[in-house]
Amino acid sequence: MRLIFLGPPGAGKGTQASRVATILDVPHISTGAMLRDHIADGTDLGRQAAERMEAGDLVPDDLVIAMLTDRIAGEDAVPGFILDGFPRNLAQARALRASPGGVVDRVVLLIVDESEIVRRISGRRCCSRGHTFHLDDQPPARPGVCDVDGDPLEQRPDDSEEVVRNRLAVYGRETEPLIGYYEELGLIVEIKASGPIPHITKQILEAVRA
Ligand code: ADP
């Protein structure tokens, strides 16, 4: 199954995409995580992306589209995939649809209130390998320590209040128009993304299997 998870920053795309991908046995492909890996590895792409990411602006389309189409051409993506954080504007959506294997089965739109978004992002803590927790909703077993690899947990640099505000504005301007684009294609399923994490996962699975 090929799915796109769409929704504002803090909607829980990463958390849900990871859970659903495990259950459906398809790769969870997060362009944000891929770009953070490039920065950590000091690649050319990482150097080109870093400044824009720190400011909460989009990384240029040509870079992200090349990275993503390359990734979905991988052997493990043949049975399907879940895209988290891509596409983020119409140019990316059109490029995806035109690329081999880029026609998706469903677009899962996660709906949350803006006050909930702020609460989620301000409580979010991650380790350097991208494992994500929340101080209230998904606390690690030991405070400040990643359950998976024991690394320290920190706030993502772009989760500061000022940058979050810009990310929300960029979402409204660039990404929200994708809802209409995918509605016209008949692909959108809407999920209310508040409440317990496992309950939301169940709703998503029911919707995409229907
Ligand atoms: P969130 O969904 O919480 O905003 P992500 O991890 O998906 O966080 O993205 C972090 C940053 O990575 C974005 O603010 C942007 O700078 C960059 N990025 C990720 N995906 C894309 C994309 N498809 N196009 C352009 N920039 C992207």
Summed up:
Helices cover about 50% and strands about 15% of the residues. By secondary structure, the chain is an alpha/beta fold.
**Small-molecule components bound:** adenosine-5'-diphosphate
CATH architecture: 3-Layer(aba) Sandwich
H/E element string?
EHEHHHEHEHEEHHEH
What proportion of the residues is helical, as a percent range?
Answer: 40-55%
Report on the architecture of this protein.
The protein has 210 residues and is of the alpha/beta class. The chain has a single domain, classed as Rossmann fold (3-Layer(aba) Sandwich). Helix content is 48%, strand content 14%. A hairpin with a 5-residue loop joins strand 5 and strand 6. Helix 1 packs across helix 9 and helix 2 crosses helix 3. It binds adenosine-5'-diphosphate. The site of adenosine-5'-diphosphate (ADP) has 18 residues, from helix 2 and helix 3.
Provide key terms for this protein:
210 residues; alpha/beta; Rossmann fold; 5-stranded parallel sheet; 48% helix; binds adenosine-5'-diphosphate
Please outline the helices and strands:
Layout: E1 2-6, H1 13-24, E2 28-30, H2 31-41, H3 44-55, H4 61-72, E3 81-84, H5 90-98, E4 106-111, H6 114-122, E5 124-126, E6 132-134, H7 161-175, H8 177-184, E7 188-192, H9 197-209
